[in-house]
Amino acid sequence: MDPGRLDRILDRLRENGGRITTARRALVTALVEAQGHVTADDLAELVQRSHPDVHRSTIYRTLDALEDLDVVDHVHLGHGRAVYHLLDDPHQHLVCEVCGAVIEVPDHLFAPLAARLAEGYGFTLRPNHFAVLGRCASCAGAGPVPAGRRSSRRSEGDDGERAVEEEKARDAVEQRLGGRPPGRR
Length: 185
Ligand SMILES: [Zn+2]
Ligand SMILES: [Zn+2]
Ligand SMILES: [Zn+2]
What we know:
It contains six helices and six strands. It is α+β, with helices and mostly antiparallel strands. α2 packs across α3.
């Protein structure tokens, strides 16, 4: 882990008017160490590993506070739960509907589209809240998107459905890696 990054984020927290509490420091540390996108539940587990005395409810409240302080943000990458990431390295998300890969791209790529939407429709684009879906380079030539990944029938936040989605994502990755031939189970 880059210790300088943690310090820079905590400086930003202070500059934005926040106090550094044990829970806040532990959460930011967990996010820096995880180097990516983590659900609130997984973050709670990570924090409690090093701080068993910090309550889950405190962790969830702290996440909200860190969002208000512009240190952390959440994004919806697909059907599953929202994931949290740090805002010191601004980016947008492309998600592959076939293998589930998350590709981070620079903010400015969306600027021309944002300008046209503002001009033509008076619409203010906010691409950071949801990922843009499509196909990654390695899946571009693959067959149709597996059923169930296409529509958004599924409601968010249900554990059973989330498990099904995760299993499908794993299957897709296995198929891509040649672990199992596509279309056979
Ligand atoms: Zn949201
Ligand atoms: Zn992100
Ligand atoms: Zn892919």
